[in-house]
Fold:
Amino acid sequence: MNRTALALALWAGLGLSPPALATTEPATPQAPDAGLAFSLAPLYSFGGARHGFGGQVGVGMSPMLWAGEGSTGTLELGLLLGYGHESYGRSNRFLGEGNVEGATHRIEALLLAGPGLQLAALPRAHTSLQLFGGWVHAFMHAQLDNELQDVSGAYDVSTGRVTTGLALTHRIGLTERVGLDLQLRAPFPTAPAAISSYVFVSVGLSIAPGPT
Structure:
């Protein structure tokens, strides 16, 4: 006879009702609030030999798709605004006797949508994969001097392109409302122009909506 059965027999022999046995309910991830969340992050971008630094701000919402015993699914919707600064000084080593000064300033406006997943075993972690589409605009200002090629002058170019791609975001909850966001963005399925061919990496903070 095991200990549980023995205890029940003793209670019954004394004419007492046995105590209720404690049960453990399966853990269910807490459904995220569907209100607006905000994010802010420094930004690093690279495309071949080109590198840039900047920042991005975002606003988004996460309506719930399902809530199960082991996971919660969300639809991640967002708007992202970004700025990048690419200095030409790092390109001088490729010019031989030439010298270039100036920079490219990039501005992006993106809409994002895709599924998100939160597991009961990792209640502070949330991962999403989103498609994004929007517009990227580049303002290029440079002064080029190359005595060997007899080239000298300044140029200013402004150009914009539609851009599409994938964004992978992993959020780690630091508090109930504040999270650490790690994001990787890359062009998909193609990058028809150099200004839309960059890969972006950011690590920043997000603030989730509070209880209503």
Summary: The longest strand covers residues 151-173.
